[in-house]
Structures are given as structure tokens and as C-alpha cells.
Amino acid sequence: MTTATSRHSERRISPVFIGILAVTAVTGWATWTGFAEQPGVAVFLFVTAAWIVSLCLHEYAHARTALHSGDISVGAKGYLTLNPLKYTHALLSIVLPVLFVIMGGIGLPGGAVFIEQGRVRGRWKHSLISAAGPLTNVLFAVVCTAPFWLGALDGVPTDFRFALAFLALLQVSAALLNFLPVPGLDGYGVIEPWLSYGIRRQVEPFAPFGLLFVFALLWLPAVNGVFFDVIDAILKSLGISDFETYCGQELYRFWQGSNEFCSAPA
């Protein structure tokens, strides 16, 4: 009886996550209706809260896939409650990704839930555990872009449309970064089980620095330009223009003041 109760509590959705969902819903409503006196504040809170929700679901996808692949320890660690405070590195998983959105408008991959790899049998299962997180970002991107590529924007308020466009940019950039085959990122986790033991041993010491290496490259104007050109091309193919993502980011940064360019008709 105690074991059953314990397992149920391990999978109960955390009040912290419910609170974040509530903030997303309320600020999304405020953005849609224009209820807030400062629309930029509502957009900032809506996008930030929705981004944190996606980060929580990203890590949940890793944990849930690991659970079904043999790692039953994820429940006791609290990973199935969607509580971001239970992650191995709450700073890396939540705080830094939010700061990067504020500073640079880029979807920083979070980290991480600790998976006991020894409990998982089979290379395909290991690859799927790593892929589950960024695939969640892909799903979020599909949801955010659906009104655009379905042509369902009639009646959608401009500020809400801009907010969705910016949120889509974050999801696409997060998916692309996560799928890079760089040690420490999910993309490397997908291919790692298929590498020889010798290669894995040689690469292992570089895993803690993989993300830092990627962002050091993104500081280079040429690399940064190519990266965002790819993102823009993906978003354009889904019906989202540069104007919409630009204005979404400008509206998000409400502290910089209003942008007259974004007040013009799209």
C-alpha cells in the first residue's frame, strides 16, 4: 500500500508546474484581449512562462522515455512531477535558458535529468531517450506555427501573433541546438550508443564543455548569421515572416520602449 501511494506521488503533477501553466494561461489571455496596460509586459510573461513549460516538458520527455526503457529511478527523483526544482541542475535547466531568451532571443538547451544508463538495455532505447527532449521542442514549434501554416490568423490579435512567432523561433532554435551531434547535447546522445567504446572514451571528457563550445561559435558573426538564416528559412516555410519574429522579440523586450516599425501594418 505504501509503495503504491509512493509511486502515485512520484507521478503527481507538481503545484509549481501548475502555477507556471496558470501564469501562461492568464498572460496569454491578457495578450489576446489587450487587457494589460503595457502589452509588452503581458507578452514577456506569456512567452517566458510558455518557454518554461516547454523546458519542463522537454525534461519530462527524457524522464518518461527512460522510465519505459528500464530506468525506474526517475520517479523517486521527482522527474515525473514536471517540477523544474527537481532537475539535477535547476540553474542550467531553467535560469540560464530564460536569461538567454531575455538577452539574445535564442532557445538555450537546458540540462538535465540524470538517467541511470546502466538500467537501460539496448542502443535504440538510449538513442530514443536522448531524442525525446528535442522532439518535444519540435512538437511545440508545430503547435506555435500551426495558425500560420494553416492560414488561421483571422481574428488573432497582432500582439498575440507576434508573441507566437517569437515563441516559435525559440522552439526551433532549441530543437536545432539540441540535435547538434556535440558532446553534452542531445544530438550526441542519439548517436553515442552507436559509437565504438574507444571513441566514446575519448569524447567523454569534452561533454561538460560542449554547450560552451557551441555558444562560443555562435558569438562569431559568420556562424551566428548562418544559424539564424537556417531558423528564418524554417520559419518562413511555416508561414512566419521575419517581421513577425522581429516584432515579437521587440515586444518581448518591453523595457526598451515601443517600436514604431512594429506598429505599422504587416
TrEMBL record:
Transmembrane regions:
12-32, 38-57, 90-115, 127-150, 162-185, 205-228
Entry cofactors? Zn(2+)
Q: What InterPro entries does this protein's entry cite?
A: Metallopeptidase_M50B (IPR052348), Rip2-like (IPR044537)
Cellular localization per UniProt = Cell membrane
| Keyword terms, alphabetized | Cell membrane, Hydrolase, Membrane, Metal-binding, Metalloprotease, Protease, Transmembrane, Transmembrane helix, Zinc
Q: Which GO terms describe its molecular function?
A: peptidase activity
Record keyword Cell membrane present: yes
Its placement in the membrane is given as: Multi-pass membrane protein
A GO biological process of this protein is: proteolysis
Q: Which family does it belong to?
A: Belongs to the peptidase M50B family.
Q: What is this protein called?
A: Site-2 protease family protein
